[in-house]
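Colleagues,

For the teaching module next term, I've prepared a clean inverse folding example: a structure given as tokens, and then the sequence designed for it. I'd like students to try predicting residues themselves before seeing the answer, so please don't circulate the second half yet.
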């Protein structure tokens, strides 16, 4: 029904920037709130950012506020995560996810997930 593919991950030095993208296939992309989550080695998956269907509302984890920006383009069917001032603790696999309805911070609320893209920040 909905397929999500992340891209843009890679290796970057601390203090640098990366922009992740998530391409969605499906006829009703604009009906989904979108989220970004991440999972570091040995840790549980955690919320990073989410954006509403129209892009008018978004929320961020405290750990990334002021550094990361989520955005979406409902014409191109993409959601992006711009990451600035990266830290070693940002190293993780980043996942794009989709859900019907309002944006939330809970993993269990999201029905569709991408395969993940690796972000590695060197200290």
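(Answer key — instructors only)
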């Amino acid at each position: 029904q909905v397929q999500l593919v992340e891209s843009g991950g890679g290796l970057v030095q601390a203090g640098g920037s990366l922009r992740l993208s998530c391409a969605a296939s499906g006829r009703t992309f604009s009906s989904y709130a979108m989220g970004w989550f991440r999972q570091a080695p040995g840790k549980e998956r955690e919320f990073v950012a989410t954006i509403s269907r129209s892009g008018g509302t978004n929320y961020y984890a405290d750990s990334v506020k002021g550094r990361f920006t989520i955005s979406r383009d409902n014409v191109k069917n993409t959601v992006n995560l711009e990451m600035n001032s990266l830290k070693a603790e940002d190293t993780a696999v980043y996942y794009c996810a989709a859900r019907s309805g309002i944006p939330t911070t809970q993993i269990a609320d999201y029905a569709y997930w991408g395969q993940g893209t690796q972000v590695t920040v060197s200290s």
